[in-house]
Amino acid sequence: MANNEELFKKITSHAKEYGFIFPSSEIYDGMAAVYDYGQWGVELKNNIRSYWWKAMTQMHENIVGIDTSIFMNPTIWKASGHVDAFNDPLIDNKDSKKRYRADVLIEDHIAKIEDKINKEVEKAIKRFGEDFNKEQFCSTNPRVLEHSAKIREITARYATAMQNNDLADIKQLIEDLEIVCPVSGTRNWTEVRQFNLMFSTKIGSVSDEADVIYLRPETAQGIFVNYLNVQKTGRMKIPFGIAQTGKAFRNEIVARQFIFRMREFEQMEMQFFVRPGEELKWFSYWKQERMRWHLSLGMSASKYRFHDHEKLAHYANAATDIEFEFPFGFKELEGIHSRTDFDLKRHQEFSGKKLQYFDPELNDSYVPYVVETSIGLDRMFLAIFANSFTEETLDDGSSRVVLRLPRVLAPVKAAILPLVKKDGMPEKAREIMNKLKYDFNLIYEEKDAIGKRYRRQDAIGTPYCITIDSQTSEDDTVTVRERDTMQQERLPIANLASYIRENINPLIQ
Ligand code: ATP
To answer: Which end of the chain is more exposed for a tag (fewer CB within 10 A), N or C?
Structure first.
């Protein structure tokens, strides 16, 4: 764990030092849980968004995208349940004055018990070697059974308390589990209170007459309230989907772990409208399809897992998270939810407008069911960035930091480097740059020794370094150095565009 914390610190400082992510308002000492994207960060973020957008819309004939506003009629948030129920249970430690999410304290406690199980498993692997059967071990070893039973007991008690909004019992649970404040080390807790996560502001010029409105806490509702507009104007036939990316705002109580949990963040969501009764089939389709998208980026499958929800939100009849192994452990990266007809029915009720679909095959009208896929763009950024960050010792004993970003997402696709600043090399390099720069994001650099320039490109994840040397003026060839292998090959200038294009092609089909 200590090692991972160390690694995570290196990752966050690399992100700042190389122009990917800056703390917001830094010269005024920053703002908690708000970040700005720098010159390379914005390119990487745009590329992730575009990779998602293309995979969801261009690659699916029955999905279209929209872009709805952040401000919406406040009744929408009544209908969706956010005004009354978009709460986190919070608790304060009276000694440290630190505030926590009660559910997170309990989850962290469960994670510690899970760690104990993992330790037992590791010990057993060492003892039994090749003959080890994990499933059998976990279902028979008394210590593991005891730990698992404890986890089930805590989870069930927490779920019941939340369902009954029994905040006193949540506090009691924290006390019974003897959870201490990580800062003060004491158990001197306040009562648990509910805290609404929506930011509100006022619209209108005269302040006392102005209406309270909210900054949207999710992009999904903008899709629901436009569902008929899109269905009619796009002549969409069920099943079909609507995708959207955009900012969402949540007044998160616990702001930590860098861009994992922010107060202003971006979501990439898709709502898929289906016939009632067919939602679970589509739920499992989207589970597989979204995992396929993740794996297409070439990150190891062992970094991902599904976490099916046992306790479902009142509107859902199936839900799973795609979890990713961040440096601080497996955490939710994406949610896939079968939301039934809850949202559309509520909007029908609150707006008084019919939101039905006439199904020509069934010759019948109904309110469609919805399967949602929802992923945080910033969280995906963190997953990719952390996973790509590599420190290497090279054969000659020197070391380098390289961002092994999936090439299709790399902020800069190639650096154009004249070997020296004379003999016509800069001019030739500029010529190549001008030919390629509309199609690819490129960097031109002539300062410093070539090795130093290679390292700078490694650190921002540039897949190719194209070097113009003395041979270039003789035969119109250049060397192309690949980031991960550091291998170089000689290529004709005329082939550069197709070479880069072929090698940065996405793997998704
Ligand atoms: P969590 O349990 O981590 O608070 P959630 O279950 O509330 O997340 P959803 O409402 O399902 O999250 O939102 C969908 C996705 O949006 C999440 O999977 C996550 O990637 C992203 N997301 C949610 N909250 C934040 C946040 N505060 N900062 C960054 N990304 C977020």
So the answer is: C
Whether residue 442 has its Cβ less than 6 Å from ligand 1:
no
Residues 256 and 368 in one domain: yes
Q: Comparing C-alpha atoms, which of 373, 366, 372 is closest to residue 348? A: 366
- Domain range spanning residue 210? 1-72+198-394
Distance between CA 307 and CA 14 in Å, rounded?
31
Q: Which amino acid is at 486?
A: M
Ligand 1: which residue has its CA nearest to atom 25? 261
Residues 325 and 257 in one domain: yes
How far, in Å, is the centroid of ligand 1 from the Cα of 378?
10
Q: Is residue 486 part of a domain?
A: yes
Asked if residue 451 and residue 466 are part of one domain, the reply reads: yes
- CB of 267 closer than 6 angstroms to any ligand 1 atom: yes
Q: Summarize pLDDT for 330-388 with one digit per residue, the tens.
A: 999 999 999 999 999 999 999 999 999 999 999 999 999 999 999 999 999 999 999 99
pLDDT tens profile 138-172: 889 999 999 999 999 999 999 899 888 899 999 99
Interior/surface letters 285-296, b for 16+ CB within 10 angstroms, e for the rest = ebbebbbebbeb
Confidence of residue 66 (pLDDT cuts 50, 70, 90): very high
Radius of gyration in angstroms for the set of CA atoms belonging to the chain, rounded to a whole number: 26
Nearest to 163 by CA among 233, 89, 220, 111: 89
Query: What predicted TM-score, i.e. pTM, was given to this entire model?
Result: 0.89
Q: How many domains does the chain have?
A: 3
Residue 417, C-beta contacts closer than 8 angstroms, at least 6 positions apart: 429, 444, 445, 446, 450, 453, 465, 466, 467, 468
Looking up residue 62, the CATH number of its domain turns out to be 3.30.930.10
Residue 130: its pLDDT value, please? 79
Cβ of 252 closer than 6 Å to ligand 1, yes or no, is yes
Return the pLDDT at 286: 98
The most distant pair of C-alpha atoms in the chain lies apart, rounded to whole Å, by 81
- Ligand 1 pocket residue status of 220, Cβ below 6 Å: no
User: How far is residue 246 from each of residues 223, 257, 263, 265, 374, measured CA to CA in Å?
Assistant: 12, 21, 14, 8, 12
Verify that 224 and 291 share a domain, yes or no: yes
265 lines ligand 1 (CB under 6 A): yes
- Are both 33 and 16 inside the same structural domain? yes
Report residue 392 as tokens: 């290497």
* pLDDT confidence tier of residue 508, bands split at 50, 70 and 90: low
* Ligand 1 mutation target, pool 104, 265, 304, 333, most atoms within 8 A of CB: 265
Contacts of 499 (CB under 8 A, 6+ apart): 480, 491
Indicate if ligand 1 lies below 6 Å from the C-beta of 323.
no
> Half-sphere exposure (CA, 13 Å, Cβ side) for 231?
22
